[in-house]
């Protein structure tokens, strides 16, 4: 697992530990590759799968065009006295302060609206100086930064590339 995916996995594990149910909004589909790469450890019912997130098994349900279908699919694992850790992933859907059919799940747990640029900054600060992070995210000197830190995978480079301002080029 590359460092950026590890960082995102840790954030999700923390949220699931604190809230049990996490409704993950990804309007730009920036995290779809990460969710696709979560190791499946079993199929549940109605499209709910068990996946490995870090060192734990959690239920994963994806939005596929129906909020009500998603809510019904996770009900067996989120209702009752002891709900199970469940991640609802909503690619292409923006969170709304006006609520949604998932509001009850959001209030029972929490919602999550990460932004790739901000997350990349936090993740990169563990490995690079603040100046290098600024240059990386501004697309200046990226090749130089990666040359000094060869342990970073192509996946991290592509994740960082997604963070760069539109229209800029790698230096």
Describe the model:
By secondary structure, the chain is α/β, with parallel strands linked by helices. It is 44% helix and 18% strand. The protein contains 8 helices and 6 strands. It has helices at residues 3-19, 32-36, 67-78, 103-108, 116-125, 130-137, 142-148, 154-163; strands at 21-26, 40-43, 49-53, 56-62, 86-91, 110-112. The chain has a 6-stranded mixed β-sheet, with helices on both faces. A hairpin with a 2-residue loop joins strand 3 (49-53) and strand 4. It is globular, with a radius of gyration of 17 Å. The two termini are 27 Å apart.
How do you describe this structure in short?
With 171 residues, the protein is an alpha/beta fold. The chain is globular, with a radius of gyration of 17 Å. It contains eight helices and six strands; from the N terminus they run H-E-H-E-E-E-H-E-H-E-H-H-H-H.
Features of this protein?
6 strands, 44% helix, 8 helices, alpha/beta, 171 residues
Shape: globular
Main β sheet profile:
6 strands, mixed
Residue fraction in strands: 15-25%
Order of helices and strands: HEHEEEHEHEHHHH
**Total number of strands:** 6
How many helices? The count is: 8
Structural class: alpha/beta
Strand order of the largest sheet: 2-3-4-5-1-6
Q: What kind of oligomer do you see? A: single chain
Distance between the termini: 27 Å
Taking Cα atoms only, what radius of gyration do you get, to the nearest Å?
17 Å
Uncertain ranges: 164-171
